[in-house]
Every structure is written in structure tokens, then in C-alpha cells.
Specification:
Organism: Qipengyuania oceanensis
GO molecular function: metal ion binding; metallopeptidase activity
InterPro entries: Metalloenz_LuxS/M16 (IPR011249), Pept_M16_N (IPR011765), Peptidase_M16 (IPR050626), Peptidase_M16_C (IPR007863)
Strand content: 15-25%
Family: Belongs to the peptidase M16 family.
Keywords: Hydrolase, Metalloprotease, Protease, Signal, Zinc
CATH class of the largest domain: Alpha Beta
CATH superfamily of the largest domain: Metalloenzyme, LuxS/M16 peptidase-like
């Protein structure tokens, strides 16, 4: 059975000032000819009564009764249910049970190419009409409307906001036409083929080469070794409308189709519409049986005790070292029973115990940066146990031996009951939290769970069933059983391995075989001894603080509490998201806190500040004290503040607040997490240069901030010079500076939480002021008229990237204008994507976004970015300049504007049904009440505008100065004139 994951939350609120339920007369008119819901006949294919639903055949897993299942005479299967998260949305998935593994040799890439052509033109949609049509219905392309192709399936996704029966009827009609009757002709193929080839090009480079070679080694002799959804240039370029149609007719058949719908309407209405539009679908010709995907097989003469098969050493000078070996078994369909799932849970516990030991050894300063064990059923091709390790040096043999020694110990001796109970407690709290939040699980997530269940040939189970199965098997969680399951995980038909290294002289395939074949002594030193740690035994933060004021902020039931030491809290206690509490702590100066000299420690802070400890708790103690608890500790550096974030629950909230406050009031400065972060930074630096995207990740912020050293990625020389002592020197004063704001939104006891705040954040010593010089450090933008900046990458010669950026602003005063700039950027985005796809065959990577920092008064940007061919860089720059000029010269059409504002309205409306949305919007409001007042116009600011307003903003921001241009091209390439 598929295990439920975290859900999107919902709060039902009456917010008249946000106009969350504004009627959409224009949209209703667009679908007015659709059949009314009342005219639909009742569904006839529902599997009711004593009939076993198709998903639960041969299973004793209790059926999730919220789902209704149906199977039509033509073979189409469906699953439907009501779900009101978020309100008004209907999530639809159409799954075709065929992917790249179903392709013939000459068809490699066809499943993915067909996915594109389905969106190009079909029975009810003219050329290029699909995306604009869905946008007019309120669906954001890429977010609500998308598709994906894997080796085993192709899935079409639609999350329809503000769904009505009429809109839904139209959507089903369009989707049925797309699946059943896409239009295959030379013009459509000529339009989509360059886009698919662009996707293939963008995925190239060192990482892609490693992926391909790893796949060929690990899955040698199986179809998966030579079948990736992206295909090959040879097979894609040889595609014709006729060959694509042949693939479609062979696999896009009713017997291979599954339709899944979860949303805020009657599920029987969903079933009726599915039967209406898919019930008369007939396949062309006889049904084709799926091909055999093959089994992993050991070479002749392999040792049955350790059947070592293929090994490979891949030399990539710019990539960090990594080693993977896999113990592989044939994949077979299973009977998804309770007993089977109990076995999976025992497998998971066994892996968790080994992984904790491996992590403990790495933290102590071992020979590897990280190592992990995980079992995975890979695309119905193998049931494999993978071991991955990242050696810290050229001595990869020691790293491999150390990891294998830990595993050997797990295979030789059972774990302690304390180890088992510790991991079981982690599982229990995760499953219990999912059950608590069952009422607010998003329909999109529930639909995706069905899709995944079909893919792995298993069932779905309600959260209470999963939790009950787990708790009812506690007597089976014994050392002997875990040992047995550990041994099964490492028993297989063949063992294969790949080592990636920057230096070819380090190893070859034979050396890797030798290292894997050597016996290792079991090492039990990383077994974790029993140790009890309690929050009750930890020192107090200080004397509980005094409340100096408290009261409502004037929005909903949200309130503010201020303490005598200057700490402020914004609280909203509500029960709309059961079992969930969002916490955010804001303090300090953020990016402004650093100088050119201290900026390299910014990266290490993001990686190691939390791990360096809190008071008496090091990283291991932090893990132990939070075992069986729902707690988090994410650290972030924003434009004007530092942040701690966590998703917790009411029972753990007090201790969560203690940890956050203790990090500020009594930080610990362990050296090992810093040294480990330093090693990780050094190992990954060179990989940034292997692709245009990597170079942008490394350098774009630096150049868009006028080459300010504070925004530069630390160089290898700077990384080498870093020390734990200097780390503390940089970060210790920063944790003491600036006022503290705590935001807590969710289901919690208000009075108890206020008392805890007084004992934690209210008890902190008085905060030091942020120095004036720090506050004065603002980001700068490159001067107007600068020549094009050209950077180089060491990746594939057909890859490049181009960026054009214009400065905007920042701060709260013009926040409403920043929201309108989001509309302008989306107008720009739609035009740029159309131009680049039409003129250069670019994929979906051309994108435009707007940023507007709120905690500082400058630094915002509108930035257009595209990953393209080197020869298309000038075309990208010309297109961006032309679009900017046209937006400033004349207003957009009403239809073009609606294609942006309607999806934005729906995104905001849906987001505003969750606590996290309100927390994000109100952060900083304890010191700047303007943010509260600005909430009242938020939805209108993002979704209501005029063509003339867009033109004015384009004139102000896009036409006032030339855009700053940056290109990333292969080394030795000169395609941009006027560059420096």
C-alpha cells in the first residue's frame, strides 16, 4: 500500500474583503454549451456492494471507503472521491500505463514526445490552444496543468480551481480529446520536436553522462539500461507523424487508461463525466501485451555468496566523488496484504538503524562525508538495496570499507531493542501526524497517491489503517526479526557498482571489483548506546519575561504579545489544521550582517549553525531528544533577517520554542559540524562549472548585486582557510543582535503557549542593537548600459544560458505595486516562452520572475532567464528587449491579461486557505503594522488590474533603463558581441 505523505492544509474562512468567491461570468460563458450536471445519467460502472474494487484485487488491505472505484466495459478504470482541500478545486489525473520501457528500439523518446504533441493539438483544441484555454479557466501552466513521462507511465495532471459542473464537463471533454484523438501532422511534429530536443540538451553535461553510464551499468541486460524517457537524438529526429501515431494507437487504449479525480464536488458527478467522455473509447486493433522488462542477472561463474557483476569507474573532473553499489533482485508483482506491508515496515526500520549508525560515524569525522542505505523497487525492473557513499578523499577504498564494516555489523548481530524503539518512535509520530491531518489532505496529493499505487501495483490505505498496521505489529519489532530483514535486504542475485571520481588514476573497474570482493570486519563502534535525555533536565533560558502588552492586531483572531525584553510574538490559535503548528522566528540583519571578509561564513552558517549545537545538546543529543517528536530546525538567511522555521504540533510546541530560544541565548559551538560542512562545500564547488545552470547558481546573485563580494560563492581557497574558531567569531555576535519576532499559527493552547514564550524568548537577555553600518548595507544593481557579461562553463558545447534583469525596488511602502509587478512579469513570461519556443525550439525553461524584498528598501528585480543553445543567446536578448519595449509601448489585450490574472487569483485564493500563507504575509508585522493593513488588498493587488496599468509599470521599470545582460556559454565560445 502506498504510504500517505504530508498534506496541503485548509482553513475555511469568511474573508469578504478578499473576495475569495468572486463569480466568474466570463469563464462560465466560455463553457456554457457544456452539458448541465443534471442532464448526466447516473454512473453505471461503479464497483459497489460486494464487488472488490479493481485496485484491491488480491489484497486484504481495508479499502479506503472515501474512494469510489469503477471499471467500464471498454477497460477504462477510474477512482473518484470528494475532497474540499483547497475549497472549490478538483484534481484530475489521467494515467496512461505506458512509458519509455514500452518503446521499440526505433521509438526511444516517443512516449515523451507524444506527451508534448497531446498538448499541441487534439480533437477539441486547435494548434497551441491547450495552455491558453486552461489559463482562461484559472489553471496555472506548470503548476495546475502539467504532464510527466516515466519509464512505466505517462500522467496528465489538471488541478482545476473554482470548479463548477459546467467547467468540469468542458475539462473532461478536452482531456478526452487529448488522450483519444491528438492531431499528428508534420507541422505539429516540427513544432514539438525542437522543444523535446531542447529538453534533452538542457539535461546534458557531466551529471547526465554519469546518470546514463550508471543506468547502463546497474541495469545491464535490462530494458531500463537503454530506455530513458528523453530518448536519443537519432530516434527523435527520425520520428514521423505516422510512427508517433503507431505508438499512440498501440498504447493509448482504454485498457491502459486510469482516470483519477478528487475534488470539491459530488464524486458520482465525476464518475458520470468520466463514463460520458471515456466510455465509448475503443482501441485500434488487438491489444498489445507489455514487453518483458528483464531481470538483473549475475555473470556466469559469480560467487553465489557475493554475486559480483558489472562495475564501472566514471571519470568526471568537475564532479565530487561518489560510490554506489546495489544488491539486486528481480522485481515481481506482489499481493498487497497486511503481512506484506508489515515486512516493508520491518525493512524500513532495518534501513533506518543502519543509516543512523552511518551518520553517527560520519559526524565523528570518518572517511566519508555521508553514506546511506535504501531499498527501492525501480520501475518494475528490480527490487534493489542501494548503498551510496561520498568519500572525503582519494582513499575511496577506506570509505567503502568503513561503510561496509558498519553494514557487516548489522548483518552479524541484531540491533538493540533501544535502537529499534527509537526508529519506531520516529515512524509512529510521522504516521500519527498524517492521521491527525487527514481532514486537510489536499485532493491533488490524494490523486497522486492513487497514481503511484497503480505504478507500483499496490493499493492505497487510509491513514488510520496505516497507523493501525504499524502499531499492531509492535510485537514483531524484535532484534531477531530486524536482523532477519537486514540480511534479506543484502541478499540478491547480483551486485553491481559505479564509482565517480575526478581523477582517473584513482581507480578502474577491476580495482572497484577487488574492493567490493574483499572481506571486511564488522565494526560495531557506531552503534548508539542507550541514553536518556529530557527537556525537563535542561537549564532554563533565564528568568521568565514580563508581558508589557497584548491584544488583537485587527485581522481575524490574530493577536500580538510583547515582552519587556523587546521580544514580540504574533499568534493565531485555530483548529482548522488539526495537529499542525507552524513556527517562525525572525531576528538579526540577514544578508546585511556580512562584510566581504565574513561573507564566506554565510554558506557554512546555512549548513552547520544548527548542527553546531544548542546549550548542552550536540547534534547527536538534538537527534535523540527529538526522537518520537514532530519538531524541526531549519535555518535561513533572508534579505533583512535570519530565520528559524519548524512544522510541529501542540504537544511539542513548548520544547520546539525552547530549542529556538536556546540557540539564541545559549548557543553551542561544536567543531565537527563546521568541518563537515567545510568538506561538503569544497567537494561540490567544482561541479558548479559543469553546466550553465550551475554557473548561474554560483554567480548570478553576485553579478546582479553589482559584483558585491558579500554575494559571492566562497572559492576553494576561501573554504580551505575557514576554521571552526572563526565560524564562532563571525556567528556568535550575529545571534545576539536585533529584535526577535516569533510567529505561531495553528492548533495550540494559546494561554499555555504565551507562558512558554515568557519562559523562552521572553527570558532572553536584552538584545544588542544592529549596528548602523550593518543596516546601511544595501544591495546594489549594476549600472545602466553595462556591456553584456559573459561567463563560461565546462559542460556540453550545445548548452548556454542567458539572463536579462531590471531593478525594481523593495520595502513595505510600495508593496502593492510589487504585487502588480508580478502580473507584469507573468505577461512577460508568457510572451517570452511563446517567442523562444517558436523561434528557437526552447523548452519550458524560458521564465520571468519578479522579486521584491520587504525587510529592506531596495534589491528587487524583474529577471528573464533561459537555458538555450549558444547560438540562440543573441535571439534571447533581442526577444527580451523587444517584449520589454512592446509592453511599454502598448497595453496588453484584455484576453492576454485574463490569462495571467485568473490563474494568479486562483493561486492566491487557494494559498490563503492555509496557515502558512498568513504567517508568511504577516511576518514582520509586529514592528511594522502597515503589513497588516496591506493584507486587505492582497488578492485584488495580484489579480485586478488594467492594461493601462501594466503599460505604466512597463514604462517605469522595463523602459527606464536597459536591462542588465549576462550569458553563460561553453569555454571557447564567442557568440555575444559587446561582451566583457
Amino acid at each position: 500500500m502506498t504510504f500517505p505523505t504530508g498534506a496541503l492544509r485548509r482553513i475555511s474562512l469568511a474573508l469578504p474583503f478578499l473576495l475569495l468567491t468572486t463569480p466568474l461570468p466570463a469563464q462560465e460563458a466560455a463553457v456554457g454549451k457544456s452539458v448541465a450536471a443534471s442532464a448526466l445519467p447516473a454512473p453505471t460502472a461503479l464497483q459497489t456492494g460486494g464487488e472488490t474494487p479493481w485496485l484491491y484485487e488480491d489484497s486484504d488491505i481495508p479499502q479506503d471507503k472515501d474512494w469510489l472505484f469503477g471499471k467500464m466495459d471498454n477497460g477504462v478504470r477510474y477512482a473518484v472521491r470528494h475532497n474540499g482541500v483547497p475549497p472549490g478545486q478538483v484534481s484530475i489525473r489521467v494515467l496512461m500505463d505506458a512509458g519509455s520501457l514500452h518503446e521499440l528500439d526505433h521509438e526511444q523518446g516517443y512516449a515523451h514526445l507524444l506527451e508534448h504533441m497531446v498538448f499541441r493539438q487534439s480533437k477539441y483544441l486547435g494548434p497551441g490552444e491547450a495552455i491558453p484555454t486552461f489559463q482562461r479557466l484559472g489553471a496555472t501552466f506548470g503548476y495546475d496543468t502539467n504532464a510527466s513521462t516515466t519509464p512505466t507511465q505517462t500522467v496528465y495532471q489538471m488541478d482545476l480551481p473554482e470548479a463548477t459542473p459546467a467547467k468540469l464537463d468542458e475539462i473532461f471533454k478536452l482531456l478526452s480529446g487529448m488522450m483519444r484523438e491528438p492531431v499528428f501532422n508534420k507541422a505539429n511534429l516540427a513544432a514539438d520536436l525542437p522543444i523535446v530536443l531542447a529538453e534533452k540538451r538542457e539535461r546534458g553535461g557531466a551529471a547526465s553522462r554519469v546518470e546514463e553510464a550508471t543506468r547502463k551499468t546497474l541495469f545491464s541486460g535490462q530494458r531500463l539500461a537503454i530506455r530513458l524517457p528523453i530518448g536519443t537524438e537519432e530516434t527523435l529526429n527520425s520520428a514521423t507523424p505516422e510512427t508517433i501515431r503507431a505508438f499512440h494507437d498501440r498504447w493509448y487504449r482504454p485498457e491502459n487508461a486510469i482516470v483519477v479525480v478528487a475534488g470539491d464536488l459530488d464524486p458520482k458527478l465525476f464518475a458520470s463525466m468520466i463514463e460520458k467522455y471515456f466510455g465509448d473509447w475503443k482501441g485500434k486493433g488487438p491489444r498489445t501485451a507489455p514487453p518483458a522488462f528483464g531481470d538483473p542477472v549475475a555473470p556466469a561463474g559469480a560467487d553465489p555468496q557475493f554475486p559480483l557483476g558489472e562495475t564501472a569507474v566514471l571519470v568526471e573532473p568537475d564532479l565530487p566523488r561518489s560510490l554506489t553499489y546495489a544488491v539486486m533482485r528481480p522485481w515481481r508483482p506482489v499481493k498487497d496484504t497486511i503481512v506484506y506491508n508489515e515486512g516493508l515496515m520491518l525493512d524500513s526500520l532495518a534501513q533506518a538503524i543502519i543509516n543512523r549508525r552511518l551518520e553517527a560515524r560520519a559526524r565523528a569525522g570518518g572517511s566519508y562525508l555521508y553514506a546511506q542505505v535504501y531499498q527501492e523497487d525501480v520501475y518494475r525492473s528490480t527490487d534493489a538495496t542501494f548503498v551510496t557513499v561520498a568519500p572525503l578523499s582519494q582513499d575511496w577504498q577506506s570509505a567503502l570499507a568503513d561503510v561496509r564494516a558498519v553494514i557487516a555489523d548489522a548483518l552479524a548481530e541484531p540491533p538493540t531493542q533501544e535502537e529499534i524503539d527509537r526508529e519506531a518512535a520516529e515512524f509512529d509520530v510521522a504516521l500519527a501526524s498524517t492521521l491527525e491531518q487527514a481532514s486537510v489532505r489536499a485532493g491533488s496529493e490524494l490523486a497522486d497517491n492513487i497514481v503511484e499505487a497503480v505504478n507500483i501495483r499496490e493499493t492505497v490505505a487510509a491513514p488510520d489503517v496505516v497507523l493501525n498496521v504499524f502499531r499492531n505489529m509492535r510485537d514483531k519489532m524484535t532484534p531477531a526479526n530486524i536482523l532477519a530483514h537486514t540480511r534479506t535486504l543484502f541478499d540478491g542475485d547480483v551486485v553491481r557498482s559505479v564509482y565517480v571520481t575526478p581523477q582517473g588514476e584513482e581507480a578502474d573497474a577491476a580495482a572497484l571489483r577487488t574492493a567490493l570482493s574483499q572481506s571486511v570486519d564488522a565494526d560495531g563502534t557506531s552503534r548508539l548506546a542507550a541514553q536518556t535525555i529530557s527537556f525537563d533536565d535542561l537549564p532554563k533560558i533565564g528568568k521568565p519575561g514580563t508581558i508589557v502588552s497584548e491584544g488583537p492586531i485587527g485581522l481575524l483572531e490574530i493577536e500580538q504579545v510583547n515582552f519587556a525584553n523587546g521580544a514580540r510574538a504574533i499568534l493565531w490559535a485555530n483548529d482548522a489544521e488539526p495537529g499542525r503548528v507552524a513556527v517562525k522566528v525572525r531576528f538579526g540583519a540577514g544578508e546585511r550582517a556580512f562584510t566581504a571578509d565574513t561573507a564566506p561564513y554565510k554558506l557554512l552558517g546555512e549548513m552547520a549553525l544548527v548542527g553546531s549545537g544548542v546549550g548542552e545538546l550536540g547534534q547527536e543529543e538534538l537527534d535523540r531528544i527529538t526522537t518520537g517528536r514532530k519538531m524541526g530546525f531549519d535555518f535561513g538567511i533572508e534579505d533583512g533577517v535570519f530565520t528559524f522555521d519548524a512544522q510541529t504540533r501542540s504537544a511539542d510546541l513548548a520544547d520546539q520554542l525552547y530549542l529556538f530560544a536556546a540557540k539564541l541565548g545559549m548557543p553551542r559551538w561544536d567543531a565537527n559540524p563546521v568541518l563537515r560542512a567545510k568538506a561538503a562545500a569544497a567537494l561540490t564547488y567544482e561541479s558548479f562549472g559543469t553546466s550553465p545552470g550551475g554557473v548561474l547558481n554560483r554567480d548570478l546573485d553576485y553579478y546582479l548585486n553589482d559584483a558585491d563580494a558579500r554575494f559571492a560563492m566562497p572559492t576553494p581557497e576561501q573554504i580551505a582557510a575557514m576554521t571552526p574558531e572563526q565560524f564562532r567569531t563571525v556567528w556568535e555576535p550575529l545571534l545576539k543582535q536585533g529584535p526577535v519576532e516569533v510567529l505561531i499559527f495553528g492548533e495550540f493552547d494559546r494561554d499555555a503557549t504565551v507562558r512558554t514564550l515568557a519562559e523562552t524568548f521572553g527570558a532572553l537577555p536584552a538584545r544588542e542593537p544592529i549596528p548602523a553600518a550593518t543596516l546601511a548595507r544595501m544591495p546594489a544593481f549594476p549600472d545602466a548600459g553595462e556591456p553584456i557579461r559573459v561567463l563560461n562553463h565546462r559542460g556540453d558545447p550545445d548548452q548556454a544560458a542567458a539572463v536579462v534583469s531590471w531593478p525594481t525596488g523593495g520595502g513595505v511602502a510600495d508593496l502593492r505595486e510589487s504585487r502588480q509587478l508580478e502580473i507584469l512579469s507573468q505577461l512577460f513570461n508568457n510572451r517570452l516562452m511563446d517567442v523562444m519556443r517558436e523561434e528557437s525550439g526552447a523548452s519550458y525553461t524560458p521564465q520571468v520572475g519578479a522579486s521584491w524584498p520587504v525587510d529592506i528598501d531596495t534589491g528587487g528585480q524583474i529577471t528573464a532567464l533561459g537555458q538555450i543553445k549558444p547560438e540562440d543567446v543573441p535571439t534571447f536578448f533581442a526577444a527580451a528587449d523587444k517584449i520589454a519595449s512592446e509592453l511599454a509601448a502598448s497595453p496588453p489585450s484584455a484576453d492576454e491579461l485574463e490569462r495571467v490574472t485568473e490563474p494568479l487569483k486562483q493561486l492566491i485564493s487557494r494559498a490563503s486557505t492555509g496557515n502558512s500563507f498568513w504567517l508568511y504575509q504577516l511576518q514582520g508585522a509586529s514592528s511594522d503594522p502597515r503589513r497588516i493593513a496591506l493584507m486587505r488588498s492582497l488578492l485584488n493587488d495580484y489579480s485586478q488590474t488594467t492594461p493601462e496599468r501594466m503599460q505604466q509599470l512597463a514604462q517605469k521599470y522595463l523602459a527606464a533603463r536597459p536591462g542588465y545582460k549576462l550569458a553563460v556559454v561553453p569555454e571557447g565560445t564567442a557568440v555575444v558581441t559587446g561582451a566583457k
